[in-house]
Amino acid sequence: MNDKTLLSKAAKFGNCSYLYPTNFLNLKVYMISVLIPTYNYNSFPLAKNIHAQLESTNMPFELLIYDDGSSSPPDENNQIQLLNRATYCVLDKNLGRTAIRNKLAQDASFNWLLFLDTDVMPKKDNFLDQYINATKDTAYDVIFGGVAYQEIAPAKEMSLRWEYGKTREAKAVSERNKHPHFIISQNLLIKKEVFLAANTATDNRYGLDNHFSNELKRQGRYVLHIDNPVIHYGLENNKIFIKKALKAVETTVLFEKKGLMDNNLRPIQKAYLKLKKYRLQTVFSTVIGCFSSRFEKNFNSGKPNLFWFDLYRLKHYIDLKRTHNA
After folding, report:
1. How far apart are CA 144 and CA 209, in angstroms?
2. CA dihedral sign, ordered 106, 109, 112, 118
3. How far, CA to CA in Å, does 121 sit from each of 99, 229, 285?
4. Taking CA atoms, which of 28, 62, 68, 296 is between 20 and 30 Å from 103?
5. Which pTM does this prediction carry?
6. CA atoms within 13 A on the CB side of 273
7. Cα torsion 157, 161, 166, 167: sign
8. Is the pLDDT of residue 102 over 90?
9. Is 178 exposed, middle or buried (0-12, 13-18, 19+ CB in 10 A)?
């Protein structure tokens, strides 16, 4: 029987209506809401891949894809509506990456939420099965599968984002377990109540994954790391990535000052505390400032130096701490 004949309740949000079978909510089986925010991006290939995997599990599910007020929503995304138990909703205004995730979570029908960025694709054919098997250990609140990048280097205009992703984000489970609460939300399975409790900063800012990770740690949530990555395809060009990285540093400084983040969570914070201990912040900032133009030239080359990128961001962090008296 087609799902459409079982539909008995409607939930309205944005300018869309989503129907789901109420009898699903009474089943004591694994149920999942897959949530994908998108913006000016063709999300249908990812939706089709995930939907096929969901249907093969023979379990209750929903697939919600919200367009965050795109200036030009791709026509291909309209095909998402043809998939059973899938909804594509175009919001009237842009909420920002964190706020739209909050809206998706609030609108979700089921307890387990799988967040995926729109510019990723599962690396494995049994992607959903691996997550489902992981939930059998009910002690965990969060399950992070990891992130991967293509092996072939992109054009040099995107080399910094690719090099950073491969080196700093695409980590093995053994490495991730050294700092278990640090996650990347582009591939994350999490209990609904845990997400809503931890995703308290909904400003339209960069670097909020750091705040979210800090909240998981503060709340004592149990995080399981597994080898179940998505490949991140949507690489920004070097200039945009540098701008975002510096904006993320600004978010960290602001949230520290407001008491919303610990001051020793990330490597950049720990490096600052070491410099501060010996009163070397000003000296460091002055010296690194002399090399800034050379660093920026390197970041836009085919072989960006990530150590230099760390120094560049640390200088920005130190300058902001002084400016904001933080």
Report:
1. 13
2. negative
3. 23, 9, 40
4. 28
5. 0.89
6. 9
7. positive
8. yes
9. exposed
